[in-house]
Design brief:
By secondary structure, the protein is an alpha+beta fold. It has 13 helices and six strands. The longest helix is centred in the C-terminal third of the chain and has 53 residues.
């Protein structure tokens, strides 16, 4: 269905707010829209694409879910809702900081949150970005992927009317609480995995036959990644408690306080794990240093005990006449090996004296 001129100009306003986009490409699209019908005919011949925007309605509450949003889906939302272009831009920009902003003019609340996801294949933690637009009678969610928590809740509401009634409960704010509550609930198994790895690292760190540097480093990396998510989330939930009741007749402060307490406990668990891992890191460094010192001590003792023999060998390697040398003639009073025996005795006596001295000092 062709767009109206008002809708087209509104979409053009949104696109012009993106400094990265080339204006030539933008105007080319709208010139085709205004004067050419070939582009429309060719577009109609393309196979239909999978609809990324889906909606569920329960009473007066409408939930719109957008998976893997692009500028096309953002433009459609801009035509249906009074969302600010900067908020829409944040939804498709990667690496945004978590934020909560309220648009009093258009009466909606914008939230951008980040939640961790554990990758079971390589044991890494990745971050997923989720955006919310909360109004009095609607909730719009934008996120990546189709197998995440938001999609599971959406499918449950879509397939089961009873579940939909429980989740929405006559309020878009309650639906937002349900989604955030399940997202924060997913932190529990992730934290349990971290604690399990902390226990495994403890056994490795205090085993001097195995190096725990790599495992300690990987564990610290995971803890830091979680801290980057949970830290800002704590501040946002505290701010959300005050603003959320403006979009519902029910007082949901108690619900969000419960979620905030859960996140606080997760933060405390991370802090404890971080302190424990730091202790393990220091312990591993001390154990490795002690092991290196023992090895160097043994090598130093061996080198020190060989100094007398080295000195004697150096003298006999010179072009000077020495007793028992080739030019002076060998000593024979103990047989043909008299010279060798004397050299061994002269080298061994200082070495034995050094051993006695080191023992007396308690150096080994």
């Amino acid at each position: 269905m062709p767009k109206s001129l008002k809708e087209t100009l509104k979409e053009l306003q949104i696109l012009l707010g993106k400094p990265q986009r080339k204006l030539a490409g933008v105007f080319k699209y709208y010139l085709n829209f205004l004067g050419s019908t070939e582009g429309v005919e060719k577009k109609e011949n393309h196979p239909p694409k999978i609809e990324k925007i889906q909606s569920i309605r329960h009473g007066k509450i409408n939930w719109v879910d957008v998976k893997d949003p692009t500028r096309r889906e953002i433009s459609e939302l801009a035509q249906q809702y009074p969302f600010h272009p900067l908020h829409l831009e944040d939804c498709i920009s990667k690496g945004q900081f978590p934020k909560i902003e309220q648009n009093d003019e258009d009466k909606y609340l914008f939230l951008l949150l980040r939640f961790p996801t554990y990758n079971t294949k390589d044991g890494t933690i990745t971050m997923s970005q989720i955006s919310f637009f909360l109004g009095n009678n609607y909730l719009v969610t934008l996120h990546e992927g189709t197998h995440d928590t938001v999609s599971e809740i959406f499918n449950a509401c879509k397939e089961n009317p009873d579940q939909r009634k429980v989740y929405i409960n006559g309020s878009s704010s309650h639906l937002l609480y349900t989604i955030i509550e399940q997202l924060t609930d997913n932190l529990a198994p992730l934290l349990q995995k971290i604690l399990t790895e902390v226990d495994e690292v403890e056994d490795i760190v205090f085993d001097d036959k195995v190096s725990g540097v790599y495992m300690v480093g990987q564990l610290r990396r995971k803890i830091i990644s979680l801290r980057r998510v949970i830290g800002p989330l704590r501040a946002l939930l505290a701010d959300m408690e005050e603003r959320i009741n403006k979009f519902t007749r029910k007082n949901l402060t108690v619900y969000f306080v419960d979620v905030a307490h859960r996140v606080d406990k997760a933060w405390e668990t991370l802090e404890e794990a971080r302190e424990t891992v730091d202790i393990y890191k220091d312990a591993d460094f001390i154990i490795s240093t002690e092991k290196t010192n023992r090895i160097l001590a043994v090598l130093t003792i061996i080198f020190t005990l060989s100094i007398p023999a080295t000195v004697i060998g150096t003298f006999y390697g010179m072009n000077v006449v020495l007793p028992g040398g080739l030019e002076a003639g060998s000593l024979n009073f103990w047989g043909k090996y008299t010279t060798l025996i004397l050299i061994i005795i002269v080298a061994a006596v200082p070495a034995l004296l050094m051993v006695w001295f080191f023992r007396k000092k308690g150096w080994f």
